[in-house]
Amino acid sequence: MTKLFELHDVAKRFQRGKESITIFDGLSLGIEEGDFVAIMGPSGSGKTTLLNLLGGVDQPSAGEIRFAGSRIDSLSETGLAAWRAANVGFIFQFYNLMPMLSAERNVELPLLLTSLSRARRRQSVEAALKLVGLEDRARHLPKELSGGQQQRVAIARAVVSDPKLLLCDEPTGDLDRATADEILKMLSLLNNEFGKTIVMVTHDPEAAKYAKRVLHLDKGRFAGEELAA
Amino acid sequence: MSELHLIWRNLVRRKLRFALTLFAIFIAFLIFGVLGGVRTALQSGVDLMADNRLVTVNKINFTQPLPISYLNKVRAIDGVQVASHSGWFGAYVRDSRNVIVAFAIEPESYLQVYGDEIRLDPAQREAFLRNRQGMIAGEALAKAQGWKLGDRIPVQSNIFSRSDGSTTWEMVVEGIFRGKEESSDTRRMYFHYDYLNESRAIGKDFTGIIVFNTVNPARNETIARQIDALFANSFYETQTDTAKAFNKAFIAQLGNIAMIITSVVSAAFFTILLIVGNTMMLAIRERTTEIAVMKTLGFRSERIFRMVLAESMFLSLLGGLLGIAAALMAVAGLHKALAGVLPDLSLGPAVIAQALAIMLALGLVTGLLPAFAAMRLNIVTALGRN
Ligand SMILES: Nc1ncnc2c1ncn2[C@@H]1O[C@H](COP(=O)(O)OP(=O)(O)O)[C@@H](O)[C@H]1O
Ligand SMILES: [Mg+2]
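YS: structure for the whole thing
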């Protein structure tokens, strides 16, 4: 397998007033294409910050981040936006759907960034909704859907433009066990059948079991690595 | 789904707030349109006036009299082409509430100065000049009063009385005149100054204003200064201006309508600016997470900026166009009702163009700040809040 992500000596510092807070320093990590990585760790350990760096919504204070061999840490804001649109699907804890748009239009949103025709967009949206089993809820507004259903819409939105990478920040943090398992199975499926590389932040050990690899982040370091059986 | 759909859904997501804001904009433009029409109507009589026409009035103000002897002194000035005069009669017929706009004039010269605005059949003109008790009435006035050629009308004055104490002057309708344009106001009448002057008990040998044409508008300034200098330090000092300026001043005296209109409209738009600006600011603030999500998905900051700006533009254009459409209807209705008072009341392209410009400016001003805030929004901090 080839390396999809390579982090080399990455540092991230935040300025809070006069104080500079170091979240990581000298963090290195490789993620292979097709991998499913769970990142665990106590609250405030920098999981979200790491995910932001991988997703190109934030930039490291030092170090290199390579995606498929090219550096993304030096891209401009505009360059990063295009890179995200082409390569990353995001799934959030609180779904973050557009409340005034129907499910299908939420799924279609990322396609407004492509040059696809209306008909092709429609096809992609249908396929994505079908994949998450919500084709009969296409016209519903988010508030008319359950949490699990909303997260499935969010997954459909994340995969509709067929990115290589899915980044999930506590995707089941707001869901009950059974619904969480459904969502996690769906992620597994996307990883196994569709070859999506997934990085998932979670504090739920049950959720981490769906991953192929679990990383424990603590005090800016990976404490130990477990390979899923 | 198009970007337009997205903008629209954002705009109408809070139905009540959207409706109220839209209504406020609607009302502001309705007011603007109607008052703009009124202002144009007030202006239009003035704009039709010849450029070489000057008016000399008493310096204290135009309701104060001038000695009739001034007329010949004005005529003697080089560059004065034709000069005449007119005096306010304070007329009514039968009932003191039936007020009539009537002026005592020197017929021949007056009709020369106003040849363009008082259009009279040559035979009627002759008859009017010949009959000292004759008068001419505008078409609209004759129609409103039911006067026909040859009718004898007992015209009364609320200013003057005759030596015998009576306030009635009997006059004969010798002519009915039309205005320069179909729409010109013709609710007024003219009669012989001599007829009034020889029989009135007070105000003898005084008139109201002197009007004259100059040979060349370029000489207006000099001639006006010359006249006012001539009468300086006399009992009756004068103020000479172009007829346009005079009429504007006249209108301004009539309650300073233009100023009132401007302040009403400005106040309306200032309020609207605050309302719409506040609405847009709120709208963007409560959408912080959504905007951050859109940016995360890969929407560029410039595009977000454009979408927010488009939203506020859309809002003010929608409200504004509805308001102007309603104003067009209102003005059409008022035009009928106020035909006598404001015959030129209409919503012209100039007012509509102004309204469009204000709509765009309103959209821009109210959208710029929120659009800028949305553009600058940082994904990490915005999403870190939840
Ligand atoms: N934009 C920021 N400015 C300052 N400090 C931040 C910012 N984002 C995160 N942090 C801090 O960095 C640390 C790690 O945050 P985060 O990555 O959200 O942790 P986790 O997701 O593991 O709970 C926390 O102490 C947090 O307060
Ligand atoms: Mg977090």
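YS: worth flagging: The interface with chain A takes residues 1, 3, 5-6, 9-10, 12-13, 289-290, 293-301, 379-380, 383-384, 386 of chain B (CB under 8 Å).
IM: good catch. Also Residues A 14, 16, 21, 23, 41, 43-49; B 380-381, 384 surround adenosine-5'-diphosphate (ligand 1) (CB under 6 Å).
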